């Protein structure tokens, strides 16, 4: 079985920006074998070490625009000289895992469509909640069937 890392990131105090951590919480409750779940406000360079220890990583976040209810796509390592120690894109984390740790981790981005980001509050909009439920079912099936191609 593949070792899978799911990283849900975003700010739960900014309404729909909490979609990533909400997905991580839901998947963690399933207690699936060989699946490690992490949740944070943002990605950091330190995440590269965790990524390097897994065969597959799924970066889950809210999407301000794009496909509804969510998109799921494979991503490739990309050197990004513009990142800071405060935030980094998934492709740059993957690049660091491959470059520094010689990892061969396969990576995916899961972007769940959100709608409300401008206020403070720890709740998801109704439409974002529906998108989250669909994303949970999708990713749960992928994890159980190990469909990562």
Short structural summary:
The chain has 149 residues and is α/β, with parallel strands linked by helices.
Q: In oligomeric terms, what are we looking at?
A: single chain
Q: Could you describe the largest sheet, including whether it forms a barrel?
A: 5 strands, mixed
Helix-strand makeup class = alpha/beta
Query: Which architecture name does CATH use?
Result: 3-Layer(aba) Sandwich
- Tell me the number of helical segments per DSSP (H or I, 4 or more residues long): 4
Q: Please write the string of helix (H) and strand (E) elements.
A: EHEHEEHEH
Helix content: 25-40%
For the largest sheet, list the strands in their spatial order. Answer: 2-1-3-5-4
Radius of gyration: 14 Å
Overview of this protein structure:
The chain is of the alpha/beta class. It has one domain (4-145): HybD-like (Rossmann fold). It has helices at residues 19-30, 47-52, 90-101, 126-145, and strands at 4-9, 35-40, 56-63, 70-75, 106-113. It has a five-stranded mixed β-sheet. Helix 1 (19-30) crosses helix 4. The mean pLDDT is 93.
């Amino acid at each position: 079985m593949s070792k899978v890392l799911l990283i849900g990131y975003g700010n739960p105090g900014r309404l729909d920006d909490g979609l990533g951590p909400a997905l991580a919480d839901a998947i963690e409750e399933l207690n699936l074998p060989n699946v490690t779940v992490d949740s944070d406000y943002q990605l950091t360079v330190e995440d590269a070490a965790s990524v390097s220890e897994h065969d597959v990583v799924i970066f889950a976040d809210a999407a301000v625009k794009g496909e509804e209810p969510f998109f799921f796509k494979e991503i490739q390592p990309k050197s990004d000289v513009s990142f800071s120690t405060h935030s980094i894109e998934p492709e740059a984390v993957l690049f660091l895992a491959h470059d520094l740790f010689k990892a061969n981790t396969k990576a995916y981005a899961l972007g769940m469509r959100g709608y409300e980001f401008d206020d403070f509050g720890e709740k998801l909009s109704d439409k974002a909640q529906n998108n989250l439920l669909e994303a949970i079912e999708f990713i749960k099936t992928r994890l159980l069937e190990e469909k990562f191609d």
